[in-house]
Write a structure and sequence with these properties.
The chain has two helices and four strands, in the order H-E-E-E-E-H. By secondary structure, it is α+β, with helices and mostly antiparallel strands.
Length: 90
């Protein structure tokens, strides 16, 4: 696979700089997607919320991020499953 950890991290950082799609769920179960990017200096991630001409991008500085949850392990997703807005396999 990868000969060392450095190559693996380099590949991951490159993918993040290109952008990664994230599908989020609102409280009512509605889906929306955003493409997140790692900036070239690796100091923040950002996304563009809308297609509006004057829309500002949102920035989340790396040093301010406390936790990242992958998959379906969030309170919001659990609440949507309980209310039957989504299936556990969505």
């Amino acid at each position: 696979m990868f000969s060392n950890r450095s190559e693996y991290l380099t590949r991951i950082l490159t993918e993040l700089k290109v952008g990664s799609m994230l599908t989020k769920r609102k409280r009512n179960g509605e889906k929306y997607s955003r493409r997140f990017f790692l900036d070239e200096h690796e100091s923040f991630i950002s996304y563009h919320q809308s297609e509006k001409v004057f829309a500002q991008s949102h920035r989340y500085y790396i040093h301010e991020i406390d936790e990242i949850r992958a998959g379906f392990h969030t309170r919001t997703f659990d609440r949507l499953v309980r209310r039957e807005f989504v299936e556990p396999t969505d």
